[in-house]
Amino acid sequence: MDNKQTGNRIIILGFHGCESDRFAEKLQNKTGLPLIHLRNIPLPAHWENIPQEEIDQKVEEMTIGERWIFEGDHYRTYSVLFRSCDMIIFLDYTETLYKNGTMERINKELAALRSSSFLYEQYSRTEILIRFYHKHIRKRVYRMIEKYPDKQTVILTSSLQADEWLSGI
């Protein structure tokens, strides 16, 4: 099946807490495209020590087909993903929306631990990551979008807008 409205190779980018996995699953249900999650790439947790060629090779292996949705955002995957895709979907939510979504996820995952110092450490770390993403990484996304003007690009700024866009497919 050819997905004229979306293309057949789609990347979905957005920081933790924007529910890109939920969005990707809904898009998969609408398009029938196979879904690939970044978290399934067989790499160690700390990517900083991995040569770029190894990351590129793993991403290329996962996106070798002609039809896929790739969900997950790590700047070290951008070169292969942007080059390979037909469509870029960027969930560019506000810092507050990212923070709320991420904190909600942390609360659910850590509820059983009940350690206030551990929760505080996670909140502080998350706050730093969100600010870093908004200050630096999202600029990289926009630079990559500019570098590939031939790619169909959709930028969504809220979960409501994302749901409305999905309902139009």
Total helical elements: 6
CATH superfamily: P-loop containing nucleotide triphosphate hydrolases
Content-based structural category: alpha/beta
Count of discrete structural domains: 1
Strand content: 5-15%
Termini distance?
A: 14 Å
Output the strand order for the largest sheet: 2-3-1-4-5
Shape descriptor: globular
Main beta sheet strand tally, sense and closure: 5 strands, parallel
The CATH architecture classification is 3-Layer(aba) Sandwich
Number of beta-strand segments: 5
Mean pLDDT value: 80
Residues in helix, %: 40-55%
Rg on CA atoms, Å: 16 Å
Keywords:
alpha/beta, five-stranded parallel sheet, 169 residues, Rossmann fold, 5 strands
How would you describe this protein?
- The protein has 169 residues and is an alpha/beta fold.
- It has a single domain, classed as P-loop containing nucleotide triphosphate hydrolases (Rossmann fold), CATH 3.40.50.300.
- It contains six helices and five strands; from the N terminus they run βαβαβαβααβα.
- The chain has helices at 20-31, 52-62, 78-84, 95-110, 116-147, 159-167, and strands at 9-13, 35-37, 68-71, 87-91, 152-156.
- It has a five-stranded parallel beta sheet with strand order 2-3-1-4-5, with helices on both faces.
- α4 crosses α5 (116-147).
- The protein is globular.
- The model has no long low-confidence stretch (mean pLDDT 80).
